[in-house]
Write the structure tokens for this entry.
Amino acid sequence: MSRTTVGGVAVERDDAPARPAPVTAAETAAMRRALVLAARGPLGPNPRVGCVLLGPDGEVVGEGWHRGAGTAHAEVAALADARERGALAAGATAVVTLEPCDHTGRTGPCSVALLDAGVARVVVSVEDPNPLAAGGARRLRAAGVDVVTGVLADEGAAALGAWLPAVRRERPFVTLKLATTLDGRVAAADGTSRWITSDVARHHAHGLRAEVDAIAVGTGTALTDDPSLTARTVDGGLVERQPLRVVVGHRDVPAGARLHGPGGALVHVRTHDPVEVLRALHAREVRHLLVEGGPTLAAAFLAAGVVDEVHAYVAPVLLGAGPAAVADLGVRTLADAVRLRPVDVVPLGPDVLVVATPEPTQPTVEEH
Ligand SMILES: NC(=O)c1ccc[n+]([C@@H]2O[C@H](COP(=O)([O-])OP(=O)(O)OC[C@H]3O[C@@H](n4cnc5c(N)ncnc54)[C@H](OP(=O)(O)O)[C@@H]3O)[C@@H](O)[C@H]2O)c1
């Protein structure tokens, strides 16, 4: 509250921003459409964002989505679309899946573009967690634009995928992939591990490789298996966007290794510390890291508490000997087991994929 005088009379004025008007059915429908548009954007370091501009009667006057680094942001693309359609953005409502940015990067701030176009209201799904880009809603509100956030927030967060937790936590989202026998082994006693799972499961895993920004293995796997760590199509060709290939550990990768062959760039992080690996990859704008083992690296990431999701492909195969999927975690009694919460179970030919997330650490409750 502040005091001001109107006609010589002191009055109290409410300085808090006006409460935004309730979200209309047309705006919710536009947000669903914006989420569909967002999904057209490429994976990678930038968020996938969609925007729909609504005219005064709730009609769509422009649509846009972000097509990748260095190109127009969704809001600017939607404003351009409106211009092309001969529609006026002045007085329009911008419905956008992520808070408009407020910084000048490779493109100018979207908040300013929306203000310059005369947009009167902005409906946002997810607030921008990136401290560099955030502040768009604040600037718009300060300029008198009606801004509402959190519309279809769960769907908005899901559409942003690994980008959102990665940017929030300033480290890549980590998926640990295991391909194991029914008795939890990832190789036979002689070290052979090709192939434990079926073609169907392996093709599925290539789909996951194509979605992530980087794939990591320890030097043990790099030297034993000579993997190429590429994302491939069913017929064996390389998909267009290849993830970075990351090797963790001190030993060298031999010059003739497949890791030097066609595929993504090779990054060798000479450390045993998963946090250092994540720091190095965050600096390269990796949002989603797939850790493919072996057991030593898997255990190190789990012990460091930086695994966000486990994808375990389990084949109906028994070996009775050979390394387990995860090396010693220091668990000596069942009460200390790493418990996972299953989120999906997918039959894949003869195999099954279990997707699970580590339980958040339970606070210690003192017993009385
Ligand atoms: N079925 C599957 O899903 C699957 C997947 C991957 C591997 N495998 C199998 O796993 C076996 C290899 O197992 P592995 O445990 O040797 O592989 P690994 O985890 O890939 O590599 C272990 C090596 O990585 C380095 N390293 C990185 N971080 C470390 C840390 N925090 N602590 C200790 N060492 C660290 C060490 O080598 P430096 O001395 O070089 O630092 C270590 O010897 C192979 O038989 C392979 O076929 C199976």
Observations:
- Residues 1-15, 362-368 have pLDDT under 50 and may be disordered.
- Residues 25-160 form a domain with the Cytidine Deaminase; domain 2 fold (CATH 3.40.140.10).
